[in-house]
Write a structure and sequence with these properties.
The protein has 17 helices and 15 strands. By secondary structure, it is α/β, with parallel strands linked by helices. The strands form three sheets. The protein has a seven-stranded parallel beta sheet with strand order 3-2-1-4-5-8-9, with helices on both faces. Helix 1 packs parallel to helix 2 and helix 10 crosses helix 12. The protein starts with 6 loop residues before the first strand and ends with a helix. About 1% of the residues have low confidence. Bound molecules: 5-bromouridine 5'-(tetrahydrogen triphosphate). The site of 5-bromouridine 5'-(tetrahydrogen triphosphate) (BUP) has 21 residues, from helix 1, helix 13 and helix 14.
Length: 449
């Protein structure tokens, strides 16, 4: 404005994988004296999101907080702080509600906005509004640059992908159809509808922030910015790695696993955590525990409790004794720690006792592992995760097994999981490559701040 105040409004969509990078980018703006207004849809999808938002706002009271109500006939009971409904249904409702609520909100902000950063899942709801206000509109793409290439190219692809072997985009390696999110291959999903609606709008934004960096995805970043993917591509800004912030630590519960790790030898522990959407059946959890024991490594396993995660609010106690049986529980206790709650993942990954990460390959998890130089064995479950696992494999600091399939396709046995962990923990070249990636990540950060 006239007084020289730069003011940004930011609009995340739903899910921790979207909210976390938004808040990390917000802290970056704050540290550069930019005024931030955070606009969030309420209720949130998970309890973790509403808790993270409260911690963020108490750490940064200078951030203006605006909530808008998500209208949905699915919210029948009294409004909760969070609403466990299917992810893309929630996204669909947020899109419709934002399109109605935003216009009066944005034009009344003071000082007037300098620019707007919206989630990529919100693009076609937001763009007509920012355009009518002549407000520069940036996207925060919370996934990889590889997935961004697919997203921006998507509207030029044939409407049915199922007959193709692979998606070929100039300048990047072909993406096998088996690695494309199943919801984009299926004929009529909400995800596909969102993708098609938004993909053709990408050229209208002023720029795209991505939580990635040159050394992590060199080829793709070159291709998108050289106009190989779309000739009219706006500037794509590799703005990562987004680093974890103090406010992310939840209550006291983050301390326990770190204390346990303090007693383990350097590089000896495999960390197994599968993200905020993954709901394994008990039979699969039993195989995971068995595999961890068979691997011979020490381990830190997170088995989720529904209320902290998306899509399940049963909040049932996990009866590990019942699920695993006494014998396995004893073996597990010998070598590992099992956490049933939300853990401070980026803190765990930074602990020197961690030697490897058995991960679902959510993009934030991958960038956090890169930041800390932790090799990954990928067990992608859904969405963009196979493409993310491939990014890790291509840069040589981990691998994944294509035969494990998407979640629920088949039971992955303890034997297979045990063997995978042995590969992960004993591969010297993964370690060397991972420390190179870490070095590159730290270098980018010194340039940025
Ligand atoms: Br689970 C879990 N603690 O216990 P991703 C996750 N996280 O701090 P997503 C914790 O949540 P997709 C836990 O560090 C990361 O910042 C984790 O984001 C944090 O996966 C975030 O890795 C999870 O992108 O799935 O959101 O589960 O993004 O693939 O849809």
């Amino acid at each position: 404005d006239d007084n020289g105040v730069v003011h940004v409004a930011m609009l995340p969509s739903a899910g921790m994988g979207h909210l976390t990078p938004f808040l990390r980018l917000a802290t970056f703006f704050l540290s550069h004296n930019i005024k931030v207004t955070l606009i969030t849809p309420r209720p949130t999808l998970s309890l973790s999101e509403s808790q993270l938002l409260s911690r963020f706002h108490s750490s940064f009271p200078q951030v203006d907080q605006i909530n808008f109500k998500v209208e949905s006939s699915l919210f029948t009971q009294s409004p909760n702080s969070h609403m466990p409904i299917p992810y893309f249904q929630m996204i669909d409702h947020i899109r419709t509600s934002a399109a109605k609520a935003l216009s009066p909100l944005l034009s009344s902000l003071s000082p007037p906005l300098s620019f707007f950063v919206s989630d990529y899942f919100m693009l076609s709801s937001v763009l007509p509004i920012t355009q009518s206000l002549s407000l520069p509109n940036y996207l925060l793409f919370t996934a990889s640059a590889s997935f961004f290439a697919l997203y921006s190219y998507f509207s030029t692809l044939p409407s049915s992908l199922s007959e193709l072997e692979a998606v070929e985009i100039q300048g990047i390696p072909p993406i096998p159809i088996s690695s494309i999110p199943p919801d984009l291959v299926a004929p009529n999903s909400i995800f596909k509808k969102v993708f098609i609606e938004d993909s053709s709008q990408v050229i209208k934004v002023d720029g795209i922030f991505i939580n990635t960096f040159e050394a992590l995805e060199p080829e793709v970043l070159e291709a998108v910015n050289a106009g190989k993917v779309l000739t009219a591509m706006p500037p794509v800004l590799p703005f990562g790695p987004f680093v974890p912030c103090e406010f992310e630590k939840e209550g006291d519960q983050w301390i326990k696993p770190l204390k346990w790790l303090d007693d383990q030898p350097r590089g000896s522990v495999v960390f197994a955590n599968f993200g905020t959407h993954t709901e394994f059946g008990w039979d699969q959890i039993r195989e995971i525990a068995d595999g961890l024991v068979k691997s011979g490594s020490r381990f830190l396993l997170v088995v989720k409790d529904g209320k902290y995660f998306n899509g399940d609010d049963k909040n049932e106690e996990v009866g590990l004794e019942e699920v695993l049986g006494h014998e396995l529980v004893d073996k597990v206790r010998d070598k590992g720690l099992v956490m049933k709650e939300w853990v401070y993942q980026s803190g765990i990954l930074s602990h020197e006792a961690i030697g490897g990460f058995l991960s679902h390959c959510g993009w934030n998890s991958i960038v956090e592992a890169a930041w800390n130089g932790v090799p990954i064995f990928g067990w992608p479950q859904r969405g963009d995760q196979k493409m993310n696992a491939e990014v890790v494999k291509m840069s040589g600091w981990g691998t994944w097994n294509k035969n494990w399939g998407w979640i629920g396709e088949r039971l992955v046995t303890g034997e297979e999981i045990g063997d995978a962990i042995k590969v992960l923990m004993n591969n010297e070249s993964f370690k060397i490559r991972a420390s190179k990636i870490k070095e590159a990540a730290r270098k980018v950060m010194t340039l940025m701040v």
